Structures are given as C-alpha cells and as structure tokens.
Amino acid sequence: MTVSAPANDFHWVRDPGALEAMVSALNGADFVAIDTEFRRRDTFFPEVALLQLAAEGNCWLVDPLSLNDTGPLIELLTDDARVKVLHSGSEDLEVFEHWLGVLPKPLVDTQKAAAMLGLGFGLGYRDLVQELLGVQLAKDETQSDWLQRPLTPAQCEYACQDVTFLARCWPLLEQRARQRDILPWIFEEASLMTSGGRGPLAKFRSAWKLAGPELSVLLALIDWREAEARRRDKPRNWVLHDKVIQELVRTMPSSMPELARVAGIPSGVVRRDGKGLLACIAEARTDGAENPPSRLPPPASPAVKRLAKSLVPALADIADRLGMNQEILMPSRDLEAIARSVTDSPDPTPVHWQGWRAETVVTPLLDEARRLHGAQCHAG
To answer: How do 58-62 and 47-55 pair as beta strands?
Structure first.
C-alpha cells in the first residue's frame, strides 16, 4: 500500500518566531532528520526552496524564501548536541554550504549506513523505507517546482514524508550498528562527506596525454570558467562548453579572428569574453613553457587492471566477514589505485583510506596485492 504523511501534520516556519519555536522544540532531541528541496536548472549554485526537519514525531517545513535571519538555523545545524540525519546527502550539503555557509555536524548518511550494514549499495530512500518499515512511499512530486508559492498539499505531503520516515529509519539502523560495534565507523564515514563531486577536471579524460603549455592552458581555462560560472551563477557549460575548451587547447588562438574560428564557440562568447580568454591562453601558454605543470596520471595499465581484478575475491572475503557491501568498502577505481601502488608510481593516499578502513580494508588488500604481484613477477 502506498502511503504519505498527512498534509496537516507539520509546522510551517516562515518567520523568526516560528523558527525560534522550532529550535526550542528540538533542544531535547538526540537527532533530527533533514532534507532539502532545491532547483538547479539554469544556475551554478542550487536554489534552495525548502528545508524539512523531523524529530520526536514532529515535522517542520522551513521556507527559505520567507526568512531573513538564518542564524538560528546555522546554530542548529552545527550544534554538537544532536545528530543530523540525511539520506544520500551530498547535494544537500552543497545547498547548506552555499545557502548558510556551513555543513551539518555531527552527521550520518543513512544511505552509507545502509551499505555498511549490508542492506545494499546506493539504496534509494524509498527502498530504504520499504526495507526497514515495510512502507511504500508515493513519488508523485519528484519533479515539482519547489520555488512556487503556495506549495500544494501534495507537495507538503511529499516534503514531510522525506523526513518523517527518515526519522523512523535512523534508530533502526543505529541499533543494528551498535549491535555490530560499527556505529563510530558510520559517523566517521559521514564526516568525510563534502559538497560537490570529483571536480570539473574529471570530465577531461584525455588530459593525461597533455604536457607543458597544452596542459597549462587546459588547467587555466578550467579555472577561468569555474570563476566565471560562480560569478555569474550559471552552469559551467553555459559559460564555456567542455568541447570548446578542448578546441581552445588544441588550436591555441592568439587573436580575435582565430578565436572566432574555433569550432563550436558561440559568437556571444567571442564578443563578451574574447579578450579575457585570449589573455588567459597567452599567459598559461607562456607559464606552461617555462614551468611545465606536473603531468596527470595515465589510465591504469593492463597489468594494473589485471592485478585489480585479481583483488576482487579478497575484497569479497572482507565484505563477507564484515557483512558490508563491497562497493562501500572499496570502489573499483580504488582497487586500481591499490594495484598501481605496488606496480607503478603510487597515487596520493585518498582521505577515505584512513580511519576504520585503513586497518580493516586497505592494509589487507595492499598485502594481497604485493603477494599477487610478487607471484606474477616470479612466474614471469
């Protein structure tokens, strides 16, 4: 049976008095479930539209469009006295960072917690609720315009269910984590979460082939676009498309006519940004010739890929022993990094290889990689 939260079972927070009442009501809570609704279609930064909170059987819908003083919210989100519970919260963190200038702490992410408890990797919120509570949630308002006012009753129901059921799921996950003595691991995993993804350079998969001036120009153009996208609050590709950046690196234009002939570059970009782009390219080209940047690491070699594949059974054994999903322990690109560290020049140690994962996962896999590599070299 599909259910949703009652539309009238929540409190609106639209003014300082309601905000103060909400914060006061949450003073005794051990944790608060949090979610956000936002729009990100034609802007660089997410446009926050709604903040939902739930704790101890209560739900609040906070209207960011009506609040001028967000100080009490900042204090609430950074108060060490209560845990902030999110599900798949990386985008929410970006909302908080841009809107309020802070990240919630202490933090747990129920999607990561579910994977660490063996319930599935990348488990969606509705699947989590179905798994833990046997409740099937409606999806009707997924594509809603959350910036419209007033919100419809259906939108309010959807917004409430995103936190009211989350507040019921976390105690069940917490109990299982305590029983398996991994609750500190779950908190540690969430503490490593940051806003944003792997960065714009990750899209340029052939960048490792570049050296000297070409690589210097690529890095400079990426930085230029990032600064402009933030300043204008527009998506990166609206400012300068990835393919145009690649063409600029390939052709290295040094005049306005040459710039105008670059494949795919809009005439408006040439008119508005031409001088800035040419200056950026010229400066980076000179710097790259005089002080070449360090080359980016190449893709994994066949030998590294073979060794990484050979590590999968060892990772499966660790995951089975811990009762966790393999992907939360070590993603495939990290297996390649493990293999590379014993065959080629090692990559910088990722932050998430430290803490609980270091002794439990990384060290055994490094030992196994050295053993397998030694056996392969001996056989060869």
So the answer is: antiparallel
Q: Helix/strand/coil (H, E, C) string of 82-149?
A: CEEEECCCHHHHHHHHHHCCCCCCCEEEHHHHHHHCCCCCCCCHHHHHHHHHCCEECCCCCCCCCCCC
Q: Strand, coil or helix: what is 35? A: strand
| Cβ-based neighbours of 96, under 8 Å, separated by 6 or more | 36, 77, 102, 103, 104, 195
**Average pLDDT of every residue of the chain:** 93
What is the CATH topology of the domain spanning 2-191? Nucleotidyltransferase; domain 5 (3.30.420)
CA–CA dist 194, 213 (Å, integer): 32
Contact yes or no for 49/39 (Cβ under 8 A) = yes
> Which fold would CATH assign to domain 302-379?
DNA polymerase; domain 1 (1.10.150)
SS3 label, residue 7: coil
Give the 3-state DSSP-derived string for 225-276, with helices as H, strands as E and coil as C: HHHHHHHHCCCHHHHCCHHHHHHHHHHCCCCHHHHHCCCCCCHHHHHHHHHH
Residue 6's pLDDT band (cuts 50, 70, 90): very low
Q: Cα separation of 319 and 313, whole Å?
A: 10
Do 211-290 and 302-379 agree at the fold level?
yes
Verify cis geometry, omega within 30 degrees of 0, for the bond prior to 346.
Answer: no
Q: CB under 8 Å to 269, separation ≥6 — which residues?
A: 240, 244, 277
- Calculate the CA 308 to chain-centre distance: 25
Residue 162 contacts by C-beta under 8 Å, 6 or more apart in sequence?
Answer: 35, 52, 125
Q: What is the CATH number of domain 211-290?
A: 1.10.150.80
- Nearest one of 125, 168, 157 to 33, comparing CA atoms: 168
Q: Where are the domains of the chain?
A: 2-191, 211-290, 302-379
The tens digit of pLDDT for each residue in 10-59 reads 999 999 999 999 999 999 999 999 999 999 889 999 999 999 999 999 99
Main-chain dihedrals φ then ψ at residue 110, nearest 5 degrees: -70, -25
Q: 153 and 7 in contact (C-beta within 8 Å)?
A: yes
pTM for the structure as a whole:
0.91
